[in-house]
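Our preliminary data section would be incomplete without showing what the modeling component actually yields. Below, a chain of 410 amino acids is followed by its predicted structure, encoded as tokens that our downstream tools consume directly.
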Amino acid sequence: MKTLIKDFIAKKGIWVGSSLLISRLSAFLLNVFVARILSKEDFGTVSFGLNFLAIFLAFSGFGAAQGIVKFGSIIKNESEKEELFKYAFSYGLIYNSILTAIMLLLALLLYWNEISKIELIAFFSIRFLGVYFVEQKKAEYRANHDNESFAKLDIFLSVLALFLGCIMTYLWGVRGFVSSLCIAPFLLLLYDFNLKFSLRKFTSNNLTSKEFWRFSWTTALTTQIGELVFILDIFFIGLLLKDQDVATYRVSSMIPINLLVLAFIFMQTEYPKLCQHHRDRKYQYHFIYNYWKLFTILSILILAIGFFFENEILSIFGTQYKDSKIYRILLIGIVASLLFRVLFVYMLASIGKSMWNLTISVFMLLLTSISLYLVIPKYGLLGTAYVTLACLTLSGILPMFAYFYESKKL
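Predicted structure:
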């Protein structure tokens, strides 16, 4: 465990950790402020729109950012790496436009009789483009092993988004909040305007464009489907229940979900190095062992503090949000994700076995969707929480078995 922590610090993981913590804290504080300012119905409506957008976010640019991190970390020649960045950004932007059209078409099909929801999703397509720009720039920093620049950009955007969101929500209510969410990603242009567009094909002796996009879209689709486990609950609540129920469930899940940042800090910092050691089984097993030691201790602390101070924690959102049963169930589910899901999804990707992640994610998507559709009408929000707990746990156990099966072949 000491080795893991020392290695984390050596890679300027403190910067990555600080940026992720500040990012999550900023988003959390903004949501607390907005939950207190807006009505429960307005907050639930915007939460539903954000969740609809989240269905597509991980697949933005058909996963160009995923390919940049994976292959950009390996390429040594700087000019070749720069060409990869230009190629991925440019074609990813085209693919992102296609994905935006698909998103809007799906919104029209699903909510053809609810104009307000279609308008909200259309407005969030602006945010979709801005997030694509941000993720591409972050991926370039990570591919260059420049965790400090990656972190500084993330902190810059997070803090400005917090202030922008609070001010605009206070002045203009729900319209101000939605507008701030759309404007915030484009603040990137104040920090780094270096976005280069070129349709020139990428050529390399070590990498083909076909190989790049096959890994990118597979990993992105896997991430996309995997992320649905965290957002399908709110999607189905919005579909089958009321906007007020969406707000109640979102508040109950907000703190547990944000605790995942603890695992992402380590995995995002270590992932490029794990890719470099993708054939070194001893190195990878040693990392897993140290990760488990550290996160077992953290998980015990999370459950102890989370359960003991549950009333105080939920009260910060306002007196209208007090359902601690859902909060406790989801907290256990997130601990399971910390110990298994986040770790082994990254581990499988690092050894080039993302197809396992994709297969498991598709299975979990179908299982979760069917379960929620059957459970929500009869058991409401509490049933939703239990389904989410079971699916989060299973979506961690299955990748673990797949990883150890594949790692024996290294």
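Residues 2-407 form one domain. The radius of gyration is 21 Å. Preliminary results of this kind motivate Aim 1 of the renewal.
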